[in-house]
Design a protein that fits this description.
homodimer; alpha+beta; NADH Oxidase; 5 strands; 38% helix; globular
Chain lengths: 192, 192
């Protein structure tokens, strides 16, 4: 029990990484663990694209930033001004300096895909922390539409991206961000 | 590391429970752990309703079954024939014989609610397994519309149910359901 509690404390959102690659064998182990995540009707819809190439990561960041800014300009989405400034900064990489990005994707036809992918993401983030690695789910990096980039990631037209997870050796484990107590609306116990 | 791997192996979908209550203090500990789950922009939108009353659990099961069958009859959803038969069976309780159901709910206005709730659900399911307890996410139990039942659960009109999680002492830990190898679409490494 202690160990799992420690792991929960250790898993933080990491956005600053050492300049050090994550061996593919470790990434494969983490993805193997992630297959144990539950999914609706044990449907296991998630697929993964692993990007350990800084040039490709930069191209993916630029593509996602451009699409977010375009959607914002066309009023399809609303971004707060802080995000707009950040996304307009040429030097800002949405994936920070991570040496690896794992895209969790799955069939558009699966109604529970968001939830199934989030469960797998949780296993990936905890599995990485258990191995001394750091992760962060970077939603700003999900907007990849360029057909060449999608083909490079191996994502079929029938699939959509749910979660880009950055992965690497953390420079430091930051303190936990503040959490409020569990918001328990009601406890209904047996009438006695 | 070993311990976390063991935990992943131990967390199974449990649908058969001992006739034994789960102490509220343990449920509170599990929900406390769940506050450590990541959420989009650390927004922490999840709220919880804890039902440890068999009569209420039965009423929630009946309500969800009736709504699912009505939606199916009105062609708003499609259920496969096996599920229709099961839901029509008066003796079938969607929550099986679980002594406790935790509803994870959150504001309808939060775009990332499904994903945030799934991450919290994952922490609850692993946290329960770490304490020797069993869980299962029972999507069939989520369709609660009766205003009296929603009020009993303390769910405001602004909120919706994402995940009903059953919780109890497992009669047995079943073998892992089959998993396919991780479906890795592509690995992109640094050009050297």
């Amino acid at each position: 029990m202690m160990i799992f509690s420690e792991l929960l404390q250790k898993r933080r959102a990491i956005r600053d990484f050492e300049n050090k690659e994550v061996p593919l064998a470790i990434i494969q182990d983490i993805l193997q663990d992630a297959t144990l995540a539950p999914s609706a009707s044990n449907n296991q819809p998630c697929r993964f694209a692993v990007v350990s190439c800084r040039k490709t990561i930069k191209a993916l960041s630029d593509e996602s930033k451009a699409n977010l800014l375009r959607d914002h300009a066309e009023k399809k989405i609303h971004l707060n001004p802080g995000y707009v400034n950040l996304l307009q900064d040429e030097n800002f990489n949405v994936f920070y300096n991570a040496p690896c990005v794992i895209y969790i994707v799955g069939p558009k036809s699966v109604g529970s895909l968001d939830v199934d992918a989030a469960l797998a993401a949780s296993y990936i983030m905890l599995g990485a922390a258990a191995r001394g690695l750091g992760t962060c789910w970077v939603a700003l990096g999900a907007n990849i539409r360029d057909p060449r980039l999608r083909a490079e990631l191996g994502i079929p037209d029938t699939c959509r991206i749910v979660a880009p997870i950055i992965l690497g050796h953390p420079k430091a484990i930051p303190a936990a961000s503040e959490r409020h107590a569990p918001d328990i609306l009601r406890v209904i116990t047996e009438a006695r």
